[in-house]
Amino acid sequence: MASSKSILAKIFAEYYLSGAQARQEGRPIAYVTAFTPVEILRAMDVVCLFPESYAVVCSASNKSQEMIQASTMASFSQDLCSYSLISFGADHYPRPPYGGLPRPDMLIATNNQCGTTFLWFKLLSQKQNIPLFIIDYPAANPNQSATRPYIEEQYKELIKFVQKHTDRNINTQELNEQIICSRKACDLWLRLHELNKEVPPPLTATEIVDSLFPMLAAKGTPSACDFYEALIEEKQAIRNENSTDSLRLLWHGYPMWFLRKRFPDCFDDAFQVVLNDYTLWWNLDYPDEQGDMDALISAYSKTYLNRTLNHKIDWVDALARDYSVDGVICHANRSCRRALADIVPLRDRLHKKEIPSVIIESDMAHAGCYSGEQVKLRIESFRESLSI
Fold first, then answer.
1. How far apart are CA 141 and CA 153, in angstroms?
2. Which of 91, 140, 105 has its CA nearest to residue 22?
3. Is 293 exposed, middle or buried (0-12, 13-18, 19+ CB in 10 A)?
């Protein structure tokens, strides 16, 4: 089996070459939001690109600040979502990473993750005159049967929309194969996380976050499954049986993609994040006893940010117990107000369970809108309080 590193490099390279190749081959390109049912689009031979993921790459490449500043050339407020600002700034930035993303033929947005993405894509559509399709997901609830016909009808309209703008029909066999691969990738993704229930944990939080890319860009492909199988095998082979005294942490919410560069001394073997629950937001459930469309509806309507507040708090509370954490760091992410809603009630729940927690006020990609000294001080103070 190839190493996980080589498989990941191949997935990454193929993804960033796919836009240029699509242009040469006359294949349609779609910009999609993170939780779009890409299986449908790929079964119609559409190349899917994720502006949110590109914003993460720009942030990890230490380019986000310059690109956000470049967005002011188009008169965008710096209070907007930092991902969207990076996207808008790319049009005015002379050397965007990987040459930027190619212009799409269509835009597909959803509201099952946050309240910004479909407005962001709406503005892209207006500015560049690109066809836009928006999928509306009602908030997930126990009575899923009430919303199923509504979402299924939108999926049918999505297929018609793509057919109209590409003259391509859906390949039902390819759709089925995509869903099978997506289901397997999600199962492997969960297994990878569960390795960190061990003491000591075999993976750092950074390794798990860095392994997220295939779940986004290649989830419905065999390559993603190959990557996670290889990574799991590698980590199982090098388990360290020597337990060390370590404070185990859960990071709640969006990662700060530049965290290890700006705060290299905040975490070590004695004070380590064993789980970032954000990465498990991508562990979608594709029921295998249902048909293809039902499996897609179930998976994409029950995303973390589309759940009720009580469900989200129960879920994070359960993770804190399952991973035997000593404390929780709650990231109050300025860019995502929808993700902020659960922090105060979650801290109340953790307090009742006698699980220490701290709130870090920052942003996932905009390093200029928060106090670095305050973040460092809070992390250090939290570490000291847990060590007493």
1. 19
2. 105
3. middle
DSSP tag of 248: E
* pTM of the predicted protein model: 0.93
Q: In the structure encoding, which two tokens stand for residue 270, read together?
A: 């004695």
Q: Work out whether strand 132-135 and strand 271-276 pair parallel, antiparallel, or are unpaired.
A: unpaired
| 123 within domain boundaries | yes
Residue 240 pLDDT: 65
**Distance of alpha carbon 8 from alpha carbon 214, whole angstroms:** 7
The domain in which residue 131 lies consists of: 19-173
Q: What is the DSSP letter of 305?
A: G
Conformation bin of residue 57: beta by default, left when phi > 0, alpha when psi is -120 to 50: alpha
346 part of a folded domain:
no
Note the pLDDT tens digit of each residue in 241-266: 656 678 999 999 988 876 766 777 78
Q: Collapsing DSSP states into helix, strand and coil, what is residue 171?
A: coil
pLDDT at 206: 85
Domain presence at residue 35: yes
Tokens of 373: 């000294």
CA distance 388 to 383: 9
Nearest residue to 128 (alpha-carbon basis) of 120, 138, 117: 120
Longest dimension (CA), the chain: 66
- SS3 (DSSP) at 47: strand
Question: Cα dihedral sign for 307, 311, 316, 322?
Answer: negative
Give backbone dihedrals phi and psi of 327, rounded to 5 degrees, phi first: -165, 165
CA nearest to 80, candidates 337, 258, 259, 375: 337
Asked if 246 contacts 200 with a C-beta cutoff of 8 angstroms, the reply is: yes
User: Is residue 113 within 8 Å of residue 36, measured between CB atoms?
Assistant: no
DSSP 110-136: ESSS-SSHHHHHHHHHHHHT--EEEE-
Report helix, strand and coil shares of the chain as percent, to nearest 5.
55, 10, 35
| CB atoms inside a 10 Å sphere around CB 272 | 18
d(CA 229, CA 198): 18
Number of structural domains the chain divides into: 1
Least confident of 65-69, 142-146, 376-380: 142-146
Size of the chain, expressed as the number of residues it contains: 388
CATH number of 25's domain: 3.40.50.11890
| 282 is a domain residue | no
